[in-house]
Amino acid sequence: MTERPADLDTAARLSVAPMMDWTDRHCRVFHRKMSRHALLYTEMITAPALVRGGARHLIAFDDSEHPVALQLGGSDPRELAEAAKIGAEEGYDQIDLNCGCPSDRVQSGTFGAVLMRHSDLVADCAAEMIHAQGREVTVKCRIGVDEQEPEAVLPDFLQKISAAGVRRVTIHARKAWLQGLSPKENRDVPPLDYPLVHRMKAAFPDLHISINGGIDSLDAASAHLDALDGVMIGRAAYQRPADILLDADRRIFGDDAPRPTAEDVALEMIPYAEAHIVTGGRLHQVTRHMLGLFTGRPGARHWRRILSEGANRPGADGRLVEEALSAVTREVA
């Protein structure tokens, strides 16, 4: 059985959800500059891409991202075990198994939310992943899918994966409807059932349980932390990163060290972006994640416009970020 490191327990008090096409390595570096403690996740990477496709470049990351988790998608225990081993070799702090994504692509591959119908298989996958390497293996799931009754399905699911050695789980407090709703609709349409997730903590006190879904402020996160071990925030952390992350270390982790400002973060991203450009990258690949940095503040529109219009142009570099930041400063003045 894998022993759970105390620092990961603490980091998981607040985590930024794995989000396809959003939480890439540039996004995670950006988020880390706002919070020293929050647990960050990769986008979901499929086990076949790593094991059969040899796509290790998909899981490259910067040392500054720690603590950082690799989320894997798949349903073949041996393949997931090999992918978990690769993730551990690359230096990830934890390996997560996706049992919550409702997209058509993951359904056709028999992974993601459809695995809520196959709890025995999930337990087998988790056991193989744990046995293959030394990092903690966690699971992110839904409360159920389609016509399943969450009150019956979720406890059975949690019992089986915990028996397999999983000690930390994140529960998206919505069902996933695999037919009739798009992935986007599955993030909003099915009703949230926070009380069910809270009851699962009471039923499984030894499980470290984080809640996900519809949580869009530190006030809301703090309320859940009265009863649960962790909160995972997705779109709000991406679209309004300063609101969620700049004060997270103080409010969620009790760290009274001086917090950076949004302006500090923008300036700190310039050398990172410049280093990426030197290796052949584009400024846009970094700055697209920074557009929401000043949301709700004077100058936010100018910041977004300058970066959106200019970052894809040939030769765009850190000077564009300085220009956008100057526009924010002028607006405030």
TrEMBL record:
EC number(s) recorded for this UniProt protein: 1.3.1.91
Catalysis: reaction(s): 5,6-dihydrouridine(20a) in tRNA + NADP(+) = uridine(20a) in tRNA + NADPH + H(+); 5,6-dihydrouridine(20) in tRNA + NAD(+) = uridine(20) in tRNA + NADH + H(+); 5,6-dihydrouridine(20) in tRNA + NADP(+) = uridine(20) in tRNA + NADPH + H(+); 5,6-dihydrouridine(20a) in tRNA + NAD(+) = uridine(20a) in tRNA + NADH + H(+)
Lineage: Bacteria, Pseudomonadati, Pseudomonadota, Alphaproteobacteria, Rhodobacterales
Record-annotated DUS-like FMN-binding domain positions: 16-325
Protein name, per record: tRNA-dihydrouridine(20/20a) synthase
Co-factor(s): FMN
PANTHER family assigned to the protein according to its UniProt record, in alphabetical order: FMN-LINKED OXIDOREDUCTASES SUPERFAMILY PROTEIN
Protein species of origin: Palleronia marisminoris
GO molecular function, one term: FMN binding
Protein's job: Catalyzes the synthesis of 5,6-dihydrouridine (D), a modified base found in the D-loop of most tRNAs, via the reduction of the C5-C6 double bond in target uridines. Specifically modifies U20 and U20a in tRNAs.
Record field: transmembrane: none
Residues bound to FMN: 18-20, 71, 140, 172, 212-214, 234-235
Classification via NCBIfam families: PRK11815.1
Keywords, alphabetical: Flavoprotein, FMN, NADP, Nucleotide-binding, Oxidoreductase, RNA-binding, tRNA processing, tRNA-binding
Active site (catalytic residues): 101 (proton donor)
Protein family: Belongs to the dus family.
Key word Hydrolase present: no
Annotated site residues (Interacts with tRNA) in this chain: 98, 184, 187, 301, 304
CDD domains named in the record: DUS_like_FMN (cd02801)
InterPro entries membership: Aldolase_TIM, DUS-like_FMN-bd, DUS_fam, DusA, tRNA_hU_synthase_CS
